[in-house]
Structure formats: C-alpha cells, structure tokens
Amino acid sequence: MSEHELRVGLIGAGRMGADHARRLHERVSGARLVAVGDPDPDRAGAAADGIPGARAETDPMTVLGASDVDAVVVASPGPVHEPLLLAAIDRGIPVLCEKPLTPDAKSSLRVVEAEAARGRKLVQVGFMRRFDPEYLELKETLDTGALGRPLLLHCAHRNAEHPPGFTTDMLISDSVVHEFDTTRWLLGEDITAVSVRQQGLEASDDPAIPQIVTMETASGVLVDVEIFVQCRFGYQVRCEAVCEHGTALVGADAGMRTHSAGRWGGSVTPDFRPRFRQAFDAEFQRWADAARRGGIDGASAWDGYAAAVACEAGIDAQRTGRRTALEMAERPELYG
C-alpha cells in the first residue's frame, strides 16, 4: 500500500464530514476518496457528488468492510464511534477519528485495549491543534525551554453562537475537550484534577453563560480556560503560556489590520473551519502519508481516552461545583 494511492472511506457526511470529503479530494496528495457512508442517502450523495470514483453508501459498515478501502475517516456522531473503531481495528486498517474517540472513558478504554491487543497503533484522534502552525511554534518554545519552565496556561475558547440542542455538558465534551488534549500535548504531562466555575452567582443550565475550567497537571502547572459559546462576534481560540522568563501567546488574531475613516480593525473568523483550515489540511496529509505505511501520525487512542477521562471529570466538577481528581487506567506498553 505504501507505493500506491491510499483509498479512503469516509463515514459521516454532516458538516464536518462533507468538509473532509472536499479536503481529501482537493488538498491531500497520495489519497483518494472512494466511498462515503451515511444513513442519510441525500447527505452521503451530496458529499460524494463531483468526486470521480466516489460512491455513496447508507451503511457505514459496508464502507468499513469494502475491499477497495485501505483506510477510514470517521466523522460520524460520537455515540456510534466505538463499533466503527473496533471493526477497523479488527480489520487492521488505519483510522482518523474526529473527536471524541468515544463519548465516555469506559468505551474509550475498550478501544485502547482492542488496539493494544492488536499490537499496532491504528487509531488517530482528530485533535487538529497539534498541526496548527501557531500551536506548533508554541510547543517548540516550551520544549526547548527558551522561556524557562511553564508555570501557567491561560486559554480562551469562544464561538459566535452554539447550535440547537447544545447543552452545558457539551461545553466540556465538545469544546474544552480540545484544551484538555492541547494541555497534555503542550506540557507533555497528564492532567490530575479539574474544577469548573460559572459566570453569575447561581448555577445555570444555559450553555450560553461563560464558564471557567481550571486544570491541575502532574507537575503543578495551572491551566484556566474561558469557555464562551455565545460571544456573538466570531470564533476565537487563544492560549498564553506564562513561563519563568517570559510569556508566549497564540491565537491573537494577528492578521491584516486596516486604518480607515477614523477607525482601525480587522476580521474575526466566523467558525473553526477557516481558523484551523491549514491545521486540518496538514493533519490529513500527515495521516494519509502514515496510513500508506500502515500507521498513524498524531494523537493516539490513548490520547483520546485521556481526553475522555478529563471530560468526565470536568462534567462532574461542573455539576457538583467541586474539584474532581482524574483516575486513569494503567497505560499499555504500546503507548509508551
């Protein structure tokens, strides 16, 4: 397979899946989309439309089992990820799975255990910030110790508005999950406890109300995250590292600025797709290159499990108002 074009099956043709279908067709070299699986035939057909050789299927398992599919991208809702991932591991084909790995720690651990039993890393989780140029520069700065030891991380995660059906739990599981992974990746250590505070004097189930999530890491670094999914002005993701000898900030909207008619300003991206398009493209290209060799190049199933454990602790802290410690399973040897 390493000498040939990677034939990719896509499962899930919603907003994210449709975006990935165009990405695979237009901006990833060495890979070709051959099948799109979605229970909604219209969505599957729309995602495959205009891509030569790509067919639409209504049964995702048909895509997973197809003889002309070498690797799979999973962009379906989280609750259906586990059986898809277990089937892919059983077949021995690489997977790029959008977050979450699965919706809870127990099912994520089952995926980890299945992969560990197989003895190969086949599942990559779609934490695209690991491929963003700004975050990569921040990671290098922290790894080299150019600013000394990191002491604090200040993060902000803002959306213009939340979609219908969005809940307060999803502030953690759908949004702050990225900060959980980013923190582990940037600092190279696990999160040990999570706390959550809400703006206002009384707790509310309204997801539009900002919350502050605080993490503690194994070495004592403190991380705070402002999660605000109804800020109305656009999409922003920021991270500032405070170190012994200085600070470093990414996500500061440092693009073009204009001065005109007595005003100055610039633009804020409307959602995550333009902000992280370059990161998504790099993630998919590196995954495709690795998949042609039979493996992955990014966040592992263990990283997905760690994020799931952090999410459960965060939701518990959110509901109880108490600091919640994380309890992780023993790491299998496959993951170092």
Question: Can you characterise this structure?
Answer:
With 336 residues, the chain is of the alpha/beta class. The chain folds into 2 domains: 6-128 and 278-299, Rossmann fold, CATH 3.40.50.720; 130-269 and 308-335, 2-Layer Sandwich (Dihydrodipicolinate Reductase, domain 2), CATH 3.30.360. It contains 10 helices and 15 strands. The strands form 3 sheets. It has a 7-stranded mixed beta sheet with strand order 12-11-7-10-9-8-15. Strands 3-2-1-4-5-6 form a 6-stranded parallel beta sheet, sandwiched between helices. The chain has a two-stranded antiparallel ribbon with strand order 13-14. Strand 5 (95-97), helix 5 (105-118) and strand 6 form a beta-alpha-beta unit. Helix 4 runs parallel beside helix 5 (105-118) and helix 5 packs antiparallel against helix 10.
One letter per element, helices H and strands E, the order comes to EHEHEHEHEHEHEHEEEEEEEHHHE
Would you report the number of β strands?
15
Assign the CATH topology of the largest domain: Dihydrodipicolinate Reductase, domain 2
Helix content: 25-40%
SS content category? alpha/beta
Lateral strand order in the biggest sheet: 12-11-7-10-9-8-15
Mean pLDDT: 94
Integer count of domains: 2
- In oligomeric terms, what are we looking at? single chain
Low-confidence stretches: none
Note the gap between the termini: 27 Å
Molecular shape: globular
CATH class of the largest domain: Alpha Beta
Assign the CATH superfamily of the largest domain.
Answer: Dihydrodipicolinate Reductase, domain 2
Considering the chains and any ligands shown, give keywords for the structure.
336 residues; alpha/beta; Rossmann fold; Dihydrodipicolinate Reductase, domain 2; 2 domains; seven-stranded mixed sheet; six-stranded parallel sheet; 10 helices; 37% helix; globular
